[in-house]
């Protein structure tokens, strides 16, 4: 199947159906009244990511996608039927962009989650909708609303954790074939790889990551040399870049340091954020270097390249040094993954006992409080001896 990662299509949602102005006229029913129904809604257009697709070739030839219009309303209180929606299935990682405004409409990163691209028009109102106590015989009706019409650009960016970067014939395809189940075309001429390849690298049970191989990049790609920059977009979602360098080129006049610097320069021209991503240096084809010369050649390359990051010495053909490389990659990728937030199960939470609230004083409680105070006062007055009237005192 041909790999297509760009397409431009026209989408048109359906128009809403018109409302109906009708009156019920039957024998022996003098006051029939309005019975015109509303129009139906036009069909909308949705996009959904499909994990089984890996190319946009379906949209290279099918350029027009149009939903049906809603049915018009009819008499006898009959509303028009709504039109069916259209769902466009696209590969995971597709970006849908408005061609005129360059605004991103949707980014399909989760499979089977529909995203609205163009909304269908609502149906018009029939005269039944305008009936009221003061408007007994309405003759108003409204047409249906038009659906959205857009011209959109589809751009596919593959979802991968690690991306391979390097000159043609650096051994990128051989490396992805050595560490994963991907089987790209491998040959001894430049630009054998014409489209990105994805491979799943399994480090251990339930431990894996996805690696992406793109066509080689050469100096002058910004001006269109080679395949240009058109495939660099597939590295923008990666978390780590592996800069694969051929340490034993066929032409002895080729300087690997100059080629490596040219790659980084082109990367910076394309996107500053992509240039700032974590990048590791992978020195390949060491099986073609004499064993006693390997250490000296690697040391000379790192010194002249002025590289201070991680360096891995491998041979993708013999798989020498590939095992430590993939384990280091997995540890790096796993450290960047955010652990999922688990929702707590409320069934096993300890019950929270709220402090007792202040009792609101009611009329009955106030009456009981006054009655208790009065009773206490009366009891106190009974215990106290009565005072004598001095007028009846014989001593006076």
From TrEMBL:
The protein, known as: GTPase Obg
A Gene Ontology molecular function term of the record: GTPase activity
Cellular component terms per the entry's GO annotation: cytoplasm
UniProt-annotated binding residues for GTP: 191-195, 213-216, 284-287, 315-317
Primary subcellular site in the record, as a coarse category: cytoplasm
Gene: obg
OBG-type G domain mapped to chain residues: 160-334
Top-level taxonomic group: Bacteria
EC number of this enzyme: 3.6.5.-
Broadest EC class assigned to this enzyme: hydrolase
Family, per entry: Belongs to the TRAFAC class OBG-HflX-like GTPase superfamily. OBG GTPase family.
Location of the protein in the cell: Cytoplasm
The species this protein was found in: Roseateles asaccharophilus
Span list, region Disordered: 349-396
CDD domains reported in the protein's UniProt record: Obg (cd01898)
Top-level taxonomy: Bacteria, Pseudomonadati, Pseudomonadota, Betaproteobacteria, Burkholderiales
